[in-house]
Design brief:
Mean pLDDT of chain A: 91
CATH topology of the largest domain in chain B: Vanillyl-alcohol Oxidase, Chain A, domain 3
Largest sheet of chain A: 9 strands, mixed
Strand content of chain B: 15-25%
CATH class of the largest domain in chain B: Alpha Beta
CATH superfamily of the largest domain in chain B: FAD-linked oxidase, cap domain/gating helix
Structural class of chain B: alpha+beta
Strand content of chain A: 25-35%
Number of domains of chain A: 2
Distance between the termini of chain A: 57 Å
Oligomer: heterodimer
Order of helices and strands of chain A: EEEEEHEHEHEHEEEEHEHEE
Low-confidence stretches of chain A: 268-272
Strand order of the largest sheet of chain A: 11-10-9-12-8-1-6-7-13
Shape of chain A: globular
Radius of gyration of chain B: 24 Å
Strand order of the largest sheet of chain B: 18-15-17-16-20-21-19
CATH class of the largest domain in chain A: Alpha Beta
Helix content of chain B: 25-40%
Structural class of chain A: alpha/beta
Mean pLDDT of chain B: 95
Low-confidence stretches of chain B: none
Largest sheet of chain B: 7 strands, antiparallel
Number of domains of chain B: 3
Shape of chain B: globular
CATH superfamily of the largest domain in chain A: HUPs
Chain lengths: 272, 544
């Protein structure tokens, strides 16, 4: 079995600040990390490998050369090898062009894959589009928001427990297919010292545009259907008011008075 | 030079110094100034001062001398030996001495230095040094500051202040007064090693400005201080030998010592440090590792192997004894998020936590030797946690704090039923060649007494924090007696009764285990020479 895990390097979100004048992210001094949802996808892959010995886990990413560090993290956490697609032609890609490029990378480098795992979304863009796009471009079935997964006995199908609004749903999908991972275990794993040392001798291959069977017009900014015009932080809201020390009737009156003052309700009754 | 002159500071008008008068008023409105992290009880103060500068501080000292009221200095109050808990007289808060004064490059030493007032907090000093952002200096618009800042920012390296006594809300002056150390002392030494200059206000209100490398004890062990009235005060440096391990147990003394070292670690009994210049060090990427081991013996083997191998230069080597991991395992079962780490291995295991330099982008980051060392000790590098990203290093740092928090939580719970109960925490250190002996003494003494205890801390410096958790008053009594036996044994091994917490008021009884009456009197003589009225920090270090 071959499991491809598509991952993204993202800025550590807690540190991100936005330059209000230019509308761009201030990346200076901000650490780059493996997107947490991609780490959960990798966790699923490592779990499946444990259940199915002989499985190979291949981490794939598209990005500038420094993306190697996110792939190194994957190798430390249990991937067997990694592939970085890096080329100036990929720069400026939106989710559409990224999905196309990653699909082309997988076709070129791991044509005999059985399963593609992705994080449900990246914590920087939050689009949750790339996984489903890869599935569509490759003509594969997809199950999104998976939290656990296990192969069927014949390994021709996968059973995924996925998050839905009302709780969880267990679905089965034929392979090959795409599964996106939602929040994983409560406490993130830590590699061992041995894993960190061994990761550095695992294969990490770089592909460029010429290695892919895809026309340049589908790549990067040129191949993108959307473009980010501006990034800005949401307007901060004023602090809420807390009413304390009131009995239920007093609280009811105070809240009603507030809603009336704000014209949310009229005459003591909700207006809608 | 064997002679130094004081600098006269014109005292401000005492009426201008912000002051709260009356014990009840202080207790009602400002109780925090009657306590520190030691939670020592019995504090009393009739005055609480908030001087803004040296002139106001001098005014307080002159006025209190006139009123014959002793003075206790207080800054961030993070100490755990009761050093800044006032027994009577006045408590003087130094919290307004909170400015970074300058940044400069010292070409002769090839190092960047920061000059800061005593109540600049370690976390602020470090954050500003690492971010290269000094709001105070930037606001001043001085051309010298601007030039130094520009040069500092042009330097592509990142710098930090190495002493890390865990409590980063400690003040720089407090850490100088206590020669604070902590885990990283293993590699970088204690605070003493990083202090380049201090200004100390004496009980007279005059100041000694002491750069390192200028004033020394004479071959006969004397330093002469000439005050503003041309009086000559001769300080006779104590002649006891310097301990063979890190120490904050009484006044530091060594032949021909630098005068600055007499004040560093003196716990403020000779004068109050108002300003400190410290050196910064280039920061490198680090790899944190928690190596699990099958027994305490295996852990000791591993520690000794780490220390002996010249290819490894850990920043720190910390220890979690079997009891400590048991406690963490229980906490993890109750609340996995509080521990924040993957499941701990089974009962009986110990762990050694250390950090080494590491270049994550290097093809061979040079840490393979750690695997070899582990294997030689019968352990496997597979049984470890390791991380180097900032978020992971923060995780490890959090993990380091979980154990003391857990211990404190247990004691707090027991105190609800027996309010007199408290934790007994040792701060003993011994020389390298006595680590195994001391560990055996801890185990035999505390297990022999049937006490609940955990050991953790700075094993690299043979400086474990053994926490005894008494379950009732009988065990508390037994624990106190055991503590004294442990301290006496550490001293017999050539160690110290306090390696980093200081003597303060709580441990002055232990000082006599380390020093003879004559040696303690030598310390008293130094204090009496500089503070004839025994006015400042009464009861600290030297029992009244």
């Amino acid at each position: 079995m071959k499991i491809v895990v598509c991952v993204k390097q993202v800025p550590e979100i807690s540190n991100v600040r936005i330059n209000r004048e230019t509308g761009t992210l201030i990346r200076e001094g901000v650490a780059s990390i493996l997107n947490p949802f991609c780490e959960y996808a990798l966790d699923l892959a490592v779990h499946l490998k444990k259940e199915s010995p002989g499985t190979e886990v291949i981490a794939v990413s598209m990005g500038p050369p420094q993306t190697r560090s996110a792939l190194m993290r994957c190798l430390e956490l249990g991937a067997d090898r990694a592939i970085l697609a890096s080329d100036r032609k990929f720069a400026g890609a939106d989710t559409w062009a990224t999905g196309k490029t990653l699909a082309a990378v997988i076709k070129a480098a791991v044509p005999d894959f059985n399963l593609i795992l992705v994080g449900k979304q990246a914590i920087d863009g939050d689009t949750a589009q790339v996984g489903p796009e890869i599935a569509e471009f490759m003509g594969l079935p997809q199950v999104m928001y998976g939290v656990t997964a296990e192969f069927g006995k014949t390994r021709k199908r996968i059973r995924v427990r996925r998050e839905v609004e009302s709780g969880y749903e267990v679905v089965e999908m034929r392979l090959p297919g795409v599964v996106s991972a939602s929040k994983g275990r409560l406490i993130r794993r830590l590699p061992s010292l041995k894993a960190i040392i061994d990761a550095r001798s695992k294969p990490l291959k770089t592909l460029t545009a010429v290695d892919l069977d895809i026309d340049d017009s589908h790549l990067g900014l040129k191949g993108s259907l959307t473009q980010v015009v501006r990034i800005f932080p949401p307007q901060s809201r004023a602090d809420g008011r807390k009413l304390e020390g009131l009995d239920p009737e007093g609280a009811r009156k105070a809240i009603l008075a507030f809603l009336q003052a704000q014209h949310y309700v009229e005459g003591g009754q909700p207006s809608c | 030079m064997y002679e130094i002159m004081t600098e006269f500071i014109q005292p401000a008008d005492i009426g201008q110094v912000h002051c709260i008068k009356g014990f009840e008023e202080i207790q009602r409105r400002f109780p925090v100034y009657l306590s520190d992290e030691s939670k020592l009880s019995g504090a009393h103060a009739d005055y609480l001062f908030f001087p803004a500068d040296e002139a106001e501080l001098a005014a307080v000292l002159v006025e209190m001398k006139r009123l014959k009221a002793p003075v206790t200095f207080s800054a961030a109050r993070t100490g755990i030996s009761g050093g800044c808990v006032p027994p009577r007289g006045a408590v003087v808060s130094l919290e307004r001495f909170d400015r970074i004064l300058s940044l400069r490059h010292e070409p002769s030493a090839g190092e960047w230095r920061i000059l800061a007032q005593c109540n600049v907090l370690l976390r602020d000093l470090n954050r500003q040094a690492m971010d290269k952002h000094f709001p105070e200096l930037e606001r001043r618009h001085s051309s010298a500051d601007a030039a130094a800042l520009a040069a500092y920012r042009e330097d592509t390296r990142t710098y930090f202040y190495p002493p890390d006594p865990t409590e980063m809300s400690a003040s720089i002056g407090g850490t100088v007064a206590t020669n604070a150390s902590g885990a990283r002392t293993y590699r970088y030494g204690p605070t003493r090693n990083w202090v380049r200059r201090i200004r100390v206000m004496l009980a007279s209100g005059e100041v000694l400005d002491i750069p390192r490398g200028r004033y020394f004890a004479s071959p006969t062990g004397d330093v002469t201080v000439q005050d503003a009235g041309k009086n000559q005060i001769v300080l006779r440096i104590p002649d006891y030998p310097a301990p063979r391990t890190k120490s904050t147990s009484g006044l530091y003394a060594a032949p021909n010592m630098d005068l600055i070292d007499l004040f560093i670690g003196s716990e403020g009994i000779l004068g109050v440090v108002t300003t400190v210049e410290v050196a910064l060090l280039e920061k490198h990427d680090k790899l944190s590792v928690v190596q699990f081991l099958q027994s305490d013996t295996q852990a000791l083997d591993f520690v000794e192997a780490l220390r002996k191998d010249a290819r490894v230069r850990p920043d720190f080597i910390e220890f979690y004894g079997p009891g400590a991991l048991d406690l963490l395992r229980k906490r993890q079962a109750d609340d996995p998020k509080a521990v924040g780490m993957p499941p701990l291995p089974g009962p009986g295991t110990t762990a050694v936590f250390f950090e080494v330099s590491f270049d994550p982008d290097a093809e061979d980051p040079g840490v393979g030797v750690l695997e070899t060392i582990a294997a030689r000790c019968g352990a496997s590098s597979e049984d470890s946690w390791a991380g180097y990203e900032m978020r992971e290093l923060d995780r490890f740092k959090h993990f380091r704090h979980v154990l003391p928090e857990t211990v404190n939580g247990i004691i707090a719970q027991r105190k609800r039923h027996i309010p007199e109960l408290h934790k007994l925490g040792t701060d003993l250190a011994v020389p390298d060649d006595r680590l195994r002996d001391m560990w055996a003494v801890y185990r035999d003494t505390l297990d022999g007494d049937g006490l609940e205890w955990v050991a953790f801390g700075h094993i690299g410096n043979n400086h474990l924090h053994v926490n005894i958790l008494p379950r009732d008053l009988h065990e508390l009594e037994k624990g106190i007696a055991a503590y004294d036996r442990l301290a006496a044994q550490a001293v017999a091994f050539g160690g110290v009764v306090s390696a980093e917490h200081g003597i303060g008021k709580i441990k002055s009884r232990l000082l006599s285990l380390m020093y003879s009456d004559a040696q303690i009197n030598q310390m008293r003589s130094v204090k009496a020479a500089l503070d004839p009225g025994m006015m400042i920090n009464p009861g600290d270090v030297l029992a009244e």
